[in-house]
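Please check this one:

***
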Amino acid sequence: MGEPFWYSSAMVIIFTFLVKLSISKITQKHKKNLPPSPPSLPIIGHIHLLKQPMHRTLQDLSQNLGKILRCGSRKVLLVSSALAAEECLTKHDIIFANRPRFLARKQFHYNYTTVSLAPYGDLWRNLRRIMTLEIFSSSRLALFSIVRQGEVGLLLDEIMKSCTSRVELKSKFADLSFNVMTMMVVGKRCHGENVADVEEAKNFHNVFKAFVDLSGAGTAADFLPILRWVDISGLEKKMVRLMAKMDKFLQGLVDGRHEILSASNGEHVKKLMIDNLLSMQAKEPELYTDIIIKGIILVLLVAGTDTTSTNLEGAMVLFLNHPEAMEKAIF
């Protein structure tokens, strides 16, 4: 019974793929002014071209084929021109506002309700307004400058203690950016000294690392929606379990901080980013739900840690390759 089932399933998948391929070929004939596309292979498309390091691979493709390329069945547009990128992000920004609905994004972003993945509309505009006015305003960022300065100072002290030996900066930059974000958002450090709950910090770090690693995971169902009804690889179940752990931690932060604010009679109001969100929730509970607040915290932690540490690492590499620039920066 098992063999006929898998045989039938395979035939359905192949038939669906061939129909989709035929339709796409027919429709593409009627489209004009399409950007050039790199050579593709049957079934796998352009996957064979995506080699590490990715940014150099994409740069080589743009140098050989042009500044604007189209790739994949998901209509990916590779733009390597500053002028073209500016036009995409300003004049035609609404066209590029939405992102593909992949499985990982659904499971990890509260069913596409975070600011980074919400579809263009009222929800996205409201989330963008919150981020612009309440999170990233100049006054808010200035308020937390002491946090950033303090964390950088602790990192420098740690490096000075190890000045007689080689220092590995990649992990230290990652810890720095993570501590800065957690201190600004919820007032807790997760690495180094002065960690209130070492076990809790360790558990959250492990969950967060697994979360980031799995966020980029792709499944066959992302490209063949007919496969979404069966979780062959078990990846979706793994995502659900991991998100349950992440949500439990985020809900604990929200509930714990809410109790502190309620017991303090306003003493701690608006000293942390989460405090400001909870104060707005008290005024408009229907608009600022726990899911919205947890989604904002999640985006801040994910977007504000890995990208920051990567940029710091890249800047340090440039300084080491250009010692004259480092000398100017120091003095």
